[in-house]
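Pinned message: reference record for Uracil phosphoribosyltransferase
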Amino acid sequence: MKAFFEGIQYLFVDILFAPFDMFRSLELSNWWGANILNWIFMIVCAVAIVYWCKQLVAHQNNNEENQDTTAHSFLK
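Predicted structure (C-alpha cells):
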C-alpha cells in the first residue's frame, strides 16, 4: 500500500509539477515569464466576460430576457 502512495507522490511531484518548478526558478530572473500562466488565465477570463456581456446586451436588445420577478417559480 505504501508503494501505491509513493507512486502517486512521484507522479505529482516529479512529473506533473515539474513545469511549476521551472517557473519558480525563473521568477528570480524574469518576473513576467514566471507569471505567464497567470496572464494567460486573466486574458481568457477577460475575453469570456466580454463575450458574456455582449451576449447579455444582444438578448436585452431582442427583448428575449424575462426580467419579471415571477420568471422563476421559487420567486413567487
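Pinned by admin. Summary line: Helices lie at 2-16, 18-26, 31-34, 36-61.
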